[in-house]
Backbone:
């Protein structure tokens, strides 16, 4: 039986949009791994009445409640008070924690503001959770058969204190949830759903989800039996064929890096509209110096000729934004940077059209030991999005070429 | 009187931690700007019973409810059904929306899967919200005097559909909050707080917040009187001097672009550890072709010599990761790409040390018409973070040099 959890993240900065709630996603992933399913995750401001409502609901929703934030020393840190109120108990000052706080400040040679001592308050019946990297200890408390943990808000401290909580929950949870994901490219979400809907029978108890973003669609199966879930993902990948480029936590740049490394090949880039993002993607993996040579970011048109070797007459006749120029950029990158493969990328990122071509026009080319390949496409969105989608499309073009070359060689 | 709002973000991927809920923070910020205060923000999975509970609570909590996600064409997209159930009404298929969907697929030349048509379903009494960038329209519905909007989950589509909703809410909200932000670099949060604490008297009713992240500290004043808030920000910027590099929505790359454009100057880059991210930042602004020439991404050591002109003996003696190499890269970029300014960036992104230098070691240089400047620093974090902080530090170094050169020339 899977345990259920509710997450309550505390802080005005979350509601005002100043801070993105990355703690909630980190907790969701970590809790799922130890067999605890997050069924509700809420954000609430530094307001005692709103927090009381949020804690009451969380205790209704799930067997485990994880609260983050509001354990600091300042006047807007009220999580201790709210938790004690939810449990209907008083706060008492823990002398051991008082001593720890005094020692901590003494060790750093700072005078200790008096407010800091409220961090030593613990609800009656609860116990502190040691914080190895900060001054705010966590709290553990049982309320009417439910388990409540309160943890500090800074991600680094949360993660340090959470280690012992995850161990405790892993021991309590009889089962765990397993997730398998298949990453696809080149198909829209409806088309992917149609392929899966027609070819994969999803049994009771397994959840199927489609996650679209950044030019890729992910197909995710979640269930309690890892063998079942993995088999479903295998079947989905088989049906999706060359559109399925990776699994689980893999990124597209990681797959490209691995495929290049497997054959001792390298890649170089000559890119225009992406301004360096394609090079950045190919150098993101640790160890990418084995597969990535470099990139010529030839943003100014004259540099396409002088640096990347695109012939001047070709630039003049076909234009900087053309399939021909993309092809010449790929060849130039490959030759001038001494790589097995060259990628060329040119296009119109916007916000205005260029050389009479609309925003989103993208020309990509890959030059390698086999045939060169050129792809012209039109991607949606604003400037940032056009650039990001161009990177995905370029990586995917190289990936497909690597697969073809493996067959040919 | 400020309107209150509750945000409900729908999707298993949010609870499982696959997707960070950036929509909630974006909505929090945008709603605050039009005078709507988010008082609760929740995430819920693709589960009809859980969604019913979340919607009921949201309608209790606030005058406006904004739901995002679950409007797609697949079987796990159930927001339409949940909203109709919460309102106690049926869904009816809207013939105009059916036609729009058919036209949309026809325009792209794709066959339309039958499931897509459920995106044309609208609760009785509700109305669709036009989606200019995707196939899922939003919904608008009044439930017992509360206003409910359902919007698509992909951030790009959410933001496009939300524009009209924000206009409507701005008109309804009698008051609005005004926010003025000063961006700083080169000082930690405590140092910034000390400068502000000693020199700026913050009146009752104005909130002051410090937001640190990505190598910058932001100082934010929020209040109902824009004149007051703006004066406070002006005073803060004055006290912070050269550390204050921008205001409100400005990005550092935007300030650099503007400063370059103001003097008809251009910049070129030779970068190693950032792999192209520095070029990407300098080409992010629309119109950056007027100020950005290009970048030599010399990831492989031999390219630092052959492409960027770093002298071989210098590379051999000082090493690829050195202040001397950063200086030579800056000069090489400036000369070989024909720019007014050249930036050189080299360092250790990790995960392992290089040439005996620890992860986070960064050497930057700017070469221009005045004196060249070199800066060596150590930045915290993992590979991704080291690369991002390097970009911020490099842009800031160029910005400061531009300010100095303006004084000199």
Residues:
């Amino acid at each position: 039986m899977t345990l259920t959890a509710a997450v309550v993240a505390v802080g005005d900065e979350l509601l005002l949009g100043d801070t993105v709630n990355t703690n909630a996603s980190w907790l969701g992933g970590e809790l799922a791994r130890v067999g605890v399913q997050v069924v509700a995750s809420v954000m609430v401001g530094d307001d005692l009445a709103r927090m009381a409502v949020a804690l009451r609901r969380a205790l209704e929703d799930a067997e485990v409640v994880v609260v983050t934030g509001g354990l600091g020393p300042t006047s807007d840190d009220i999580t201790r008070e709210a938790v004690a109120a939810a449990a209907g108990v008083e706060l008492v000052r823990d002398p051991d924690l008082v001593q720890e706080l005094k020692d901590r400040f003494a060790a750093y040679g700072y005078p200790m503001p008096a407010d800091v001592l409220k961090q030593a308050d613990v609800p009656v019946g609860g116990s502190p959770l040691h914080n190895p990297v900060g001054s705010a200890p966590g709290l553990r408390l049982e309320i009417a058969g439910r388990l409540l943990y309160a943890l500090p808000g800074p991600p680094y401290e949360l993660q340090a204190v959470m280690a012992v909580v995850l161990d405790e929950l892993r021991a309590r949870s009889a089962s765990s949830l397993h997730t398998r994901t298949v990453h696809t490219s080149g198909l829209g979400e409806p088309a992917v759903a149609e392929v899966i809907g027609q070819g994969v029978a999803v049994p009771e108890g397994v959840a199927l989800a489609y996650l679209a973003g950044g030019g890729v669609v992910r197909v995710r199966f979640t269930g309690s039996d890892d063998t079942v879930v993995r088999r479903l993902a295998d079947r989905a990948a088989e049906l999706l064929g060359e559109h399925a480029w990776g699994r689980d936590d893999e990124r597209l740049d990681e797959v490209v890096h691995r495929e290049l490394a497997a054959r001792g090949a390298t890649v170089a880039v000559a890119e225009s509209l992406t301004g360096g993002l394609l090079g950045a993607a190919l150098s993101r993996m640790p160890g990418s110096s084995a597969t990535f040579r470099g990139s010529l970011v030839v943003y100014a048109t004259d540099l396409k000729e002088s640096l990347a070797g695109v012939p001047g007459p070709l630039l003049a006749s076909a234009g900087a934004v053309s399939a021909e120029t993309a092809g010449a950029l790929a060849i130039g990158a490959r030759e001038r940077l001494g790589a097995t493969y060259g990628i060329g990328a040119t296009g119109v990122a916007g916000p205005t059209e260029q050389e009479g071509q609309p925003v989103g026009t993208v020309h990509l080319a890959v030059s390698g030991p086999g045939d060169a390949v050129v792809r012209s496409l039109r991607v949606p969105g604003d400037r940032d999005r056009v650039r990001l989608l161009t990177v995905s499309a370029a990586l995917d073009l190289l990936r497909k070429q690597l697969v073809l070359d493996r067959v040919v060689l």
Notes: Chain B has three domains: 3-172, 178-247, 252-408. Chain B has 14 helices and 17 strands. Residues 383-408 of chain B form the longest helix (26 residues).
